[in-house]
Amino acid sequence: STTLTKRIKPLCFHYNFSEYKTYKMSTLSLFGSSVCPLSQSVQMTLDLLKLDYKYTEVNVANGSTCTRDFLALNPHKSVPVLVDSDLVITESTAAITYLVMQYSSSQLYPECAKKVSQIDQRLQFHIGRFYEALIECIAPVFMGKSSSIETEKMETLKEVLMWINQMTVGGYVLDTSMTIADIAFLSTMSTLEASNILSLHPYKNISMWLENMRKQVPNYENNCQKGADEFGKRFRERYEKSGTDKVEKDANAQDFKVDVSSETSSMVFTSESESGTDYTFSASDDGSYTPANNANPFKGNVAALIHHYDLLN
After folding, report:
1. What is the pTM of this model?
2. What string of DSSP letters covers the chain?
């Protein structure tokens, strides 16, 4: 018993003896933050698969990710962290794919290599484009560096949303059935909506998908919506709309057109912003996209932004 306790102790922090016993009875343990979309996606996956697990709330703002015990779990000082016996996974995408592959192989992440490649593509788009674009918009406000959002960053986020709107034309992020990609997108989209930095009304496919996912995912209210709402509340306390955000006040006036009559769908979105950019691109069934004009390359250290994302008072 003494040897077992020594093995488990580095994986925990501020535990009393009763909590040790609880941890030993549970194989899976999730260390996360209720206001972090990446943590929310892992917790929703756990509940979707009906798995037993222990959840520990990590207060990033109070430095809990910098303690010796937590650093033994994840030296990157970030959440979420999924622990399964002696296996530690410190990236949300890796965590949700592992959970499905290990505990419930299904259409959520099937064994078909072709299908998996498309799901992986969506997952990489989520973390590399969607989540990153959202972080670029909201992190400066949270970190006290700005009270408004730069027009260029907002335009990048809107372009990403247009692509997601095309992805969800079949009802889900990929084709016509739920995959773990939907779970990943759901938490980030919920946070975006709660932040209220733009309207999702012009993105009809996204709006229908979001409403549908809320009904399908178990414990969505507790695992995602509450945290997103809390995040949105704190964000709006710091955020002041400026003249650069004027276009968002009249989002319904934007011209949004989707043609899904052919095998390859074409989307045309014209924004009434000062840039006058006309975003036109094609999305084929294999998930590839061909922009009509070159979007500005996305820049910034997303690792640092993700680390600071949770810095709430």
Report:
1. 0.73
2. -HHHHHHHGGG-SS--HHHHHHHHH-SEEEEE-TT-HHHHHHHHHHHHTT--EEEEE--TTTTGGGSHHHHHH-TT--S-EEEETTEEE-SHHHHHHHHHHHH--STTS-S-HHHHHHHHHHHHHIIIIIHHHHHHHHHHHHTTS-SS--HHHHHHHHHHHHHHHHHGGGSSSSTTS--HHHHHHHHHHHHHHHHTSS-STT-HHHHHHHHHHHHHSTTHIIIIIHHHHHHHHHHHHH----GGGGGGGGGGGSEEEEE-SSSSEEEEEE--STT--EEEEEE-TTS-EEESSPPPPP-S-HHHHHHHTT---
